[in-house]
Input
Amino acid sequence: MKAAIGKEHGVVFGLLHSSTFIFLLSSFILHPSSFSLAGLPQPLIVYYGQAKDWFGWPYTDNATVILLRGTNECARQPIKGSLSPGVNFALQVPFDDGRDTNRYVRNAVRAGDAVSVVVDDCDGRKTVMENGTVPAVTTPGDMILVNVTAATDADGDRLPDEWEQVLIDWGLHPNYTNIWDINAGDDYDGDGQSNGDEYRAGTFAFLDYDYFFVEHMERTGNGRLGLDFLSVLGKAYNLQYSTNLYAGIWTDCEYSLSDTGALQTAPTEGDGAWFSFFVPIVNTFRAFRLTVR
Output
């Protein structure tokens, strides 16, 4: 008899616990306000490009690119050389589907979010002069190209204020007293290249002997045309040709980095030293141009 009662009590005890569990689970489902929902993760988006200092030279180290949503940091990447010619950062950013007010992680972004980029370098945190044109977040999985310059551009001429101030301080033209006197289309040092072109090439716009051009050209023993120029560390160089200058149509040209090397059309990154491109010679008219970015 005692054994039977003990068994019965054991069954009742088990049922009570089962019922309690079911009741609590029902309450959890019926009252969602008692816990916090969140959005769901989507494929990452990537902001990538090249970050440059105020002189227009790409960072190669000692700098970190950071993506912000308001004051909230979404992603960062220390720069350690280049990822590919013309690209030294790629920010992988978590993307939230926006189904709830809470994001699945604090640094996630959503479609339509406005974002900005800053650069931390050896001189501290710097805003970038392209902040007004950093694209807003779009759709999951997107690859968004954005090149940034750690500088300011108060006069809106796409030349960093700090770069323009160097020209003023150089004193070649005493009548230039503020950054509004420096224009991208002008030629400060009179070397035949505009201020804007010199800034983009990374040359010194206050020295008339420093500008971007092919300094030597000759036919090689292998029947190619050798083009020699002085490169800037981190800048991306490419070669194009045209068969009709009047039409203004330019096409990427095959070249190699040695007289017998394999041909390519992809950009090549400068190392700050002398560079040579070798171009196959063909029996048709071609005009060539060397580009830098």
